[in-house]
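Dear support,

We are seeing what looks like truncated structure output for some complexes. This example has two components. We would appreciate it if you could run it in full and send us the complete token output so we can diff it against ours.
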Amino acid sequence: MSVTRDDVLRIAQLAELEVEEDGLPALVDQMSRILDYIAQLSPATGSNGLRPFVPGPDAIRFQPDEVKPWPLAFGPEKFAPAFKDGFFVVPKLDQFE
Amino acid sequence: MTEAKAAADRLVKAKRLNALLTPVKELRKSLTEQALAARPTGVLYGMPVAVKDNICTLEFTTTCGSKILEGYRSPYEATAVAKLKAAGALIAGKTNCDEFAMGSSTEHSAYGRSIHPLDKARVPGGSSGGSAALVAAGAVPAALGSETGGSVRQPASFCGVVGIKPTYGRVSRYGLVAFGSSLDQIGAFGRSVHDAARVLSVISGRDPKDATCEDRDPLRLPTVPESLQGFVIGLPREYFPPDLDPAVRRACDRAVRLMKEQGAAVREVSLPHTQYAVPTYYVIAPAEASSNLARFDGVRFGPRADGATDLRTLYRRTRGEGFGPEVRRRILVGTYVLSAGYYDAYYRRAQQMRALIAQDFRNAFDRGVDLLFTPTTPTPAFKAGEKLADPVAMYLSDIFTVTANLAGLPAISLPVGRVKGLPVGGQFIGQAFLEDEMLEAAYALERAVPATEEA
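Here is the complete output from our reference environment:
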């Protein structure tokens, strides 16, 4: 399954990832090889009748997924690139598709 | 206090390995402070434990080996780290790793590659290569790593130390920076099975902060068995292919012979979907990574790219400049396999194959096998740069380890011999939550095998 330069640029756009023009040919080649490699799964899996996989072993009992406010040692102003008056500061939204 | 100073001195001596990311001055200061605060009654009192740099600590920065988190200091610590400290252990700095744990050589770190302690031209494995190298060099008796596809066991095998990956859900993932959430587990390195097992025992057990952590008591350490009488060990034929490195085969054959001499019954088994494990992993892990790493966008954590005048440019430029080539590749592959039109062809099929791989293990265990024994890696440590240009070749070095992650099972790698001076690891894969049984077998094999002799 080969990908083209345009495919990679489209995927990069979806992933919000800037890709440098110089590195594109190598990236196209490497992604094509990776996708060729994982394509061997297609003929191997057969029907859709299998039960869906649940992470972890059968025996696992997950706990209720509850959101609780765990205390932080310090606030976002210490680790955010820009934080003011309780808000993360970002540039304006421009032509967001 | 004496132990804190001695630990710092040993870590400074191991500096040539580029395995520790924490600056020496900061490390010395923190170790002294921790030693003063440590609980003398804790079961790991005074034991220095180095921590992989994708596990959050309050004492040191957590960069995940990435430029995108350069200088990032977490406002909370991982539950595993909190449990170590509560047991009296000293957090002995942060260890180098492949960026966001994506790699098998620790060459994909933004802070330079780590060096194999026995051969500077070779890699220590990865992604937890810094942790493995420090334990192998004797700088610390134990370290934490993380596993998504073998990132504790593979470097343990390469460096000649013990590495344990627990059952999925045995150890809390709270504070482990997520890569592949259905696969990730924190694991332990030690110079002996006992050291690694002691650390695992302390970090295991329930945690209200992680819903995927099983509501279960911490692992109780087994006693060292007199023999392997009563154990049925399965040898999966797919893990001993005709093209297996002959020296690795020799070392594993010797280990099997020693297990038989100790009374174990050994029989061949088949895990027929093993050949699809690596392609399955390289669909599921990048898919989960592309989602998990979406949060690193220059808004909330770490540095952001300069000069972006709109939000979208900020995202793209920060991520493009901040992530290294392997992480970028995996995000792109993950985005691709989850995108409309390709989801069924890749992701759904990989999930189906994952179910088949897990079923293979159930079938083997249902037929009376207690544990499986395999080589940990197809070859000893490879040379730096050897696999960098070919991502698929690099991925194949995880061929014997990814299955345990896909099925959520516990596994341990321990040294079983040397090949031209380089360590070779053997691996036990156990049944879910039966780490105690797996450790008993590992204790017995460790006692019997001449791990530092040529196979």
